[in-house]
Every structure is written in structure tokens, then in C-alpha cells.
Amino acid sequence: MESSVNRRLNAVSRHFLQPSEPNSLLHQVFLRGGQLQKQEEEAEPVIVGGMVLDIHATPSVPANPRTTTPGKVHYVLGGVARNVAECMSKLGAKPYMISAVGLDMPGNLLLEHWKSTGLSTEGIRRQQDINTAVVCNILDANGELAAAVASVEAIEKFLTPEWIHPFKCNISSAPVLMVDANLNPPALEVSCRMAAESNVPVWFEPVSVTKSRRIASVVKYITVASPNEDELVAMANALSGENTFHPISREKYSMETLFQKLKPAIWVLLEKGVKIVVVTLGPDGVFLCSKERLKSMRIGLERTKTYGFSRTLYDIVTSSCPSSSYSGATQPEGGSQIFAMHFPALPASVVRLTGAGDCLVGGTLASICAGLDFMQSVAVGIAAAKAAVEAETNVPSEFSLTTLADDAKTVYVAAKVLFHQSML
């Protein structure tokens, strides 16, 4: 039987480029299956970042200041990295989590649930003096975040380079590393550098406007970044060293107009070396952007077999979303072009929105690890995000493969290629 190392490592080696372009940066980043096929250990995607207990407070009537408001309060397992990893696990991947929690009630809740998934807890630091990260989210009646207070100092204090470095073997053999910006800059640096030394693709999840600026110190290592519009603006300002970019007022723009407004900020990230920018647009979907000449955006150089849920995910999505659909979507030659695609969101019966972005990333990463190309994977990610907003928890208790594939097909078929002129 073929090992998981072959299944997962080859799933990240043929992404974006044709084999005739061996000197391309993307080729160098993703073409690594041949080296790692020889390893006998099972390779797992590595997720480094926060495990957080979310407290969701939802008023049942419009809230008034300076008084209590009737409503419901729920404890929900959260943290960007934890949510992404849980979503991946429910879609057939087996992520290796590196994080930190305390021996307190929130830490016990988080760790017991993690153990119940059957995933490794070796990378999760636990000790008495850690106060587990907790975020209190105040939601409005529509499930939108109205305000929040985050007590997440433990992630920065205890998820240190000294804790992360012993997991170098896990990171260097991983098909992909995802880091969230809850990490302090030294921890981000060591995580991303260890991945880069082994040509492991790095996905940067910005977490918040404030923390998104931490990309500045590690941008040379980043393969994919997934900001929302406000995080994109903050990241572009941090990378350019100027306060040039400003949040976009959300009028009812066409997608072409919205892209034109965001394009200068996207260009800054691409010019600084980020290979792929996934801009999340909430109810308007996703922009997928790159400078490279793209074909079907296949990650694996040679797709290997997957088993169980991952295999079924691969088969059902490829049958409904053939990668050849966009095989002709290449941009004109020249390094100063942006290739951009818009993927629409799906209508949903919204319960809460707090896990949508994390499940979009988790669904995309799980699909990449299953061997799907990047555009297929984004479609699955959007389908996973729809399932998340219809659930009480940040990550649905389970995913229906049939529903996921049907929703992914709807997104994939409606995706639109955008071509724009040189930025120079």
C-alpha cells in the first residue's frame, strides 16, 4: 500500500506551473515530491498557531449600552489555527498542530476535544502557568461580529521559537505549513524559515488587521496569504513602509471595479514575493491572484493515490469540477501582470459567521493535500465556509461530501477570470 508521505507530499509539488518552467520560483517552491518520497515517515500538514476558547454572546433583542441584554452565551472551540486544523481533519487530512494551552478549564475543553479527533497532541504545549487564550465575541442578531475582547497573550508568550524548533522534522517533511499571525515575530520567523529551508510552501493567515502586519518580517518565506480586504490594506502598508493604502468603502461595486480598487494593495504583496494572494470578500466570495503564468494551477507534480475520505473528496470534486475547464486561462507573458479570478460566495442560512474564513482556508488546504488543483480547492473551501456559517460551532460537526461537492461545483462553474494590464 502506498504511504501517506507519497499521497500528501506529491499533492503540493505541481501547483501553478508547467513542467517546462524549472527555474520559476513557484516551481522551486512546490517541486519537492521527488525528494520526500524517499522518507518513510508519514508526512502531515503542519499548523502552527492559536487554540482559543471562544465565548459567543448573541443578544435576542437589540442591545442597549450600560445595561444587560437578554440573549444566549455559548462556549465554542476556536482559534484560527485550531479551526483550520479541525476543518482539515474532517475533510480527510491529518494536520499536526503546534500550539499552547493551560491546565485550566478552557485548556481542558480544547485538549479533550482535540484528543477525541484522534490527532496528535505532541505539539501542544501544556503547563500550569499558561492561561489558555480566550476570546469573548459579542455578536449582533444576524450573527455578525459586533465587538470582541481577546485575551490571547499566552499564545505569544508560550508558543516560542524554543518550543517550535524541536518540531523541525515535522515542518521540513510537511506538504504545507500554515501559520497564523497570533504567533509573535520570532516564532513566525523560526517556523517559516524552517519550512523555507526544505522548500515547504507556507500559508500565512493574518488573523486580524493589527496582527496581519506581522507579515513584514517573514514575507520572503510566504507562498500564500489569505487576508480580507482590511487586512490586505494593513499588510500592503506594512510591506511598503508607508500609509499609502486605505480601507475600501463597501459600496455595491461590481467585482471588476472592486478588484481594480484592491489591485494596488494586492500588487504590493505579489511584488514582495508572495506567490498567491487569496483575498476573502465575505458575502462577495474570493479573489485569487498571482503574477505567475497559470494553467490549471495543479499542485502535485505527480498525483498519487489517496485513501478514505481524501480519496472520495478527490474523486467526487474532480468529476464535477474538471481542472481542464480553465486550462486556457493564461495571462499574457511579462512579470508585471496580475492574473486574477473571482469565485463567488454561496447563499446560506446564516447562524453565525465567526468560523467562515477559517473553514475556507481549512477546506482549501485539505483539498490541496488531497491532490486537487488550487482552483478546485478554493471552490471546496468556499463550500466549507458555507457549511460553517450554517452551524452553531466554528467548524461543522461533520461535512456532507455530496453537498460539499455540489456547492463546490456551483462556485467553480460561476468563477470568472479577470485580466488586467501591467502595473508598471
Automatic annotation (TrEMBL):
Superkingdom assignment: Eukaryota
A GO term, aspect molecular function: hydrolase activity, acting on glycosyl bonds
Domain Carbohydrate kinase PfkB, residue spans: 48-293, 341-391
Cellular component, GO annotation: cytoplasm
Presence of the UniProt keyword Chloroplast in the record: no
InterPro entries, per database record: Carboh/pur_kinase_PfkB_CS, PfkB_dom, Ribokinase-like
CDD domains (alphabetical): YeiC_kinase_like
Keyword set includes Magnesium: no
Pfam families, per the entry: PfkB (PF00294)
Key words, A-Z: Kinase, Metal-binding, Transferase
PANTHER family the UniProt entry points to: CARBOHYDRATE KINASE PFKB DOMAIN-CONTAINING PROTEIN, ZGC:136858
Protein's UniProt name: Carbohydrate kinase PfkB domain-containing protein
